[in-house]
Amino acid sequence: MTRVLLPWSDLTVPPSLDATVYDGIAAPPDDLGDIELYVLPYDRGIAPIELIGAMPSLRAVQSLSTGVDNVHPLVPAGVQLANGRGLHDLSVAEHALALILAAQRDLPRWIRQQNRGTWERAHTASLADSRVLLVGHGSIGKAIERYLLAGEAEVVRVARTARDGVHGIDELPALLPAADIVVLIVPGGEGTRGLLGAVELAALPDGALVVNVGRGTAIDTDALVAEVGTGRLRAALDVVDPEPLPPEHPLWTERTVLITPHIAGGSASFHPRAKRLVETQLARFAAGEPLLNVVD
Amino acid sequence: MTRVLLPWSDLTVPPSLDATVYDGIAAPPDDLGDIELYVLPYDRGIAPIELIGAMPSLRAVQSLSTGVDNVHPLVPAGVQLANGRGLHDLSVAEHALALILAAQRDLPRWIRQQNRGTWERAHTASLADSRVLLVGHGSIGKAIERYLLAGEAEVVRVARTARDGVHGIDELPALLPAADIVVLIVPGGEGTRGLLGAVELAALPDGALVVNVGRGTAIDTDALVAEVGTGRLRAALDVVDPEPLPPEHPLWTERTVLITPHIAGGSASFHPRAKRLVETQLARFAAGEPLLNVVD
């Protein structure tokens, strides 16, 4: 029997594998000497990762995060490392849509009215017919696009490099003046820092909505504060720069801004997708087939 | 030239028609004696409707509302009446999705935190993987379904009569215990009054979300207040019974309830759809073809 260490007990495990459960909260099992595959508990800090050092028979490590920068240095040479790419995509896309619809249909206004017990009707903007600039067209961008098309919005795709049906990022200045909504789903780092700065924000038409579910650094926060402060632009942000946003930051109190604390990826849709990936990997491991999502 | 009276000036009008604009706000034109087609201004009260009596040459009236009960008695025999069926569907569907996502992704919580300037993360429910009971499967229900499928929810359809892929309303009691979300999109009237009463609400599992974008009378409000009062169920309601909801009503202050004041149909998506319908009707009228959406 090949021993594997798994974070949950509710998994379908091939009969040739002998599974032990370690959830990253309870104490780890003592006998780790013959563990050959270790599926890391999700989001439980560094201790479960350091446990790799107690597994001399290890052949593969499966992380459930997309980024494995903190795991990589602790994985010995010759041991495969697979990541959790895609497991959070749908959750992020769903939250992006929640932010867009909340802004377009003015949910903060209705919630304020509810707090006062006021029944007062008004017309709102809509997502339908809006021209939405999707900046970033990986798996999250594609998931957002499926929602937008279902809602009869017009989607304009932008990615780092132009390809069929997708504009290159260098075309962004020309596209901004005609956008009703801009959704940023770009990674962090120097390449995307200040992607929407004062000049780009000024190019957006009055009333445009800026949505960010990628990384906060992609928007120049001071420039955004200036534009939302006059009420010219609106924003719905799951990520900001800096994070956490300090209590006294002016962004909190802007009337046209909606802020959620970097929680787009953390919803219930993660677990079933993580479970499916782990079960697929267990079947491949048992059959001697190559794992998916191997990094390097 | 055939004279027509239209609510907007930004319409494409066939050359054989002579268009005059009346928006229902400014004073009506004096010379209405030879108007043959009258497109009623939308949502401007009874005065524009009574103007029909000043048009002896009238052959057809186009309303932009779905319900034409108030127009019908004022349309002379022999004059066609067409309604605005479908023009609000997408707006209602979009708002239903806004309510569902706001509840699942806990937007009221984030807005409360924003009001306090608090950055505090937490996991939420999701729409993805949820089993959604769509009660009502006309054009609004179908528009909601397109959104739900884009978001990888499981859709269970319920309509008045069972048909292929759609459960009959008599199966509702058997379906409620396995629903994560119930969306009501049923018309008013005695046939749907109290569709979700104490027994039906009790059949829902703990934490289920009740969404209503149809008519408030379809839910027994007292029974709902009891279930949300204990925190066992959640609700997101664009329609309630009574409307307007009085300022002191207990529903306003329930922590698990989100209320919008019957505004699902009133968004910017109406105008372009209404414009397209009117332009289609003008082309048909000019060509001597039968109008769409004729009632009776």
From TrEMBL, chains A, B:
Origin organism lineage: Bacteria, Bacillati, Actinomycetota, Actinomycetes, Pseudonocardiales
Q: Name one Pfam family in it.
A: 2-Hacid_dh_C
- Keywords, in A-Z order: NAD, Oxidoreductase
Instruction: Kindly indicate whether the keyword Oxidoreductase belongs to this entry.
Output: yes
Domain D-isomer specific 2-hydroxyacid dehydrogenase NAD-binding: start-end pairs? 97-264
Name of the molecule in the record: 2-hydroxyacid dehydrogenase
Among InterPro entries, the record links this protein to: D-isomer_DH_CS, D-isomer_DH_NAD-bd, NAD(P)-bd_dom_sf
